Amino acid sequence: MKITKKKLELAVAEDILSKKQADNLFDFLKALPSTGPSFDFTHILYYLGGLIAIGAMTLFMNLGWENFGGWGILIISLIYAGIGCKLTENFKKKDYVIPAGICATFVVALTPLAIYGLQQAMGWWPDDTMYREYHRYIKWHWIYLELGTLAVGAIFVWFYRYPFLLMPIAVTLWYTSMDIAVMLTGERPSFELRALVSMYFGLTMTLFAFWVDIRSAKSGDYAFWLYLFGVMTFWGGMTSQHSDSELSKFIYFSINLVLIGAGVVIVRRVFVVFGAIGCSIYLGHLADEVFKDSWLFPIALTAIGLGIIYLGLLWQNNERKITQTVRSYLPLPLRELLDERTE
Fold it and tell me: How far is CA 22 from CA 25, 34, 115, 280, in A?
């Protein structure tokens, strides 16, 4: 729970705190170093600048860089990386956690470009594809760039422990899942195989994110980006599966309901968002195919919607009791995680 000046004033009005205690507490909390992102102008500037710099060396890389040749690309990448490391250290010493994490992430994001330059310089690059295609197309030989990025990312996470460093790692794992499909087939994989690989790889990443979430509960939100790309990859692969069976489609709907429930339990919105989209897709299928032109379907759907609202009211009135009962059956590390997140 975010503590604001307004909330402290309400506590003063209820005689929970004195005016002086409230002011002192607010000044104390405000002086603490920020360890996580928040929606304020300072952090927006941090992330906007950081993402522009990262995008310049990744998504928006143009053909002009190819004129530098392999050694030129490698040397320039190393110079940029040195600047990024220097800024990371400077920000770290001054307790500017967010800028330090963004600069460290910038260095990790440079890794595939540096490896590409090295391979070009040494004559190891297997075809005429260029680096700008790394973020656009699936190729088996990207795997060397991805493994190198994962290795550098793991080293930086070990030394700096900034949650934002998990962003390029999560993206790279996502890329790896698609390139693995190419390696399994030896050729361009079918859409069905890519969807299947994405689904299982996304599930694995999501479970790994859950493990990271429990292990790092008291030190920072290291699981956010793993959850985001894990759920997105799993859900995308699952949604891309083709089936003419109504039972399979209902199972798909049920899995999305489980995602929503899991998101509520572990307080992760990404589960709820994708689960809600999946449920909407299934209801749209029912409206367009199963109950097409049926006057009863909209009425039944309205009743279901109102019923869910009523369940929401029951939940609100009994939330504490239900939450305590459910959490009593959970493992201790997970209970501690949820208690800390919902404080």
Answer: 5, 20, 54, 45
How many CB atoms are closer than 10 A to CB 75?
15
Ranges of residues in the chain whose predicted pLDDT is under 50: 33, 35
- The crossing angle, in degrees rounded to 10, of helices 332-341 and 246-266 is 70
- C-alpha pair distances (Å), 224 with each of 5, 107, 339: 27, 20, 18
Last residue of a domain, one of 128, 154, 187: 187
* CA–CA dist 337, 343 (Å, integer): 10
Residue numbers of the domain that contains 89: 44-187
**Selection from 72, 149, 63, 163 nearest residue 110 by Cα:** 149
The DSSP result for 48-92, as a single string, is HHHHHHHHHTTTT--GGGGGGHHHHHHHHHHHHHHHHHHHHHHHH
Task: Assess whether 159 and 179 both reside in one domain.
Answer: yes
Overall size of the chain counted in residues: 343
The pTM of the whole model exceeds 0.85: no
Residue type, 87: L
CA angle at 9 for the pair 4 and 10, rounded to the nearest 5°: 100
Do 51 and 170 lie in a common domain? Answer: yes
88-145: per-residue pLDDT in tens?
Answer: 999 888 888 888 888 999 999 999 999 999 998 998 888 888 887 887 777 778 889 9
Instruction: Output the pLDDT for position 343.
Output: 54
Termini Cα distance of the chain? 6
Q: Say which residues have a Cβ less than 8 Å from residue 77's Cβ, sequence separation at least 6.
A: 57, 110, 113, 114, 117
Spatial contact of 230 and 205, defined as CB atoms under 8 Å apart: yes
Q: Are residues 49 and 179 part of one domain?
A: yes
Q: Are residues 51 and 25 in the same domain?
A: no
User: Which residues neighbour 253 within 8 Å (Cβ) at sequence distance 6 or greater?
Assistant: 278, 279, 282
Q: Does any domain span residue 162?
A: yes
Rounded-to-integer distance, Cα 99 and Cα 101, Å: 5
Which of 187, 219, 252 is the C-terminal boundary of a domain? 187
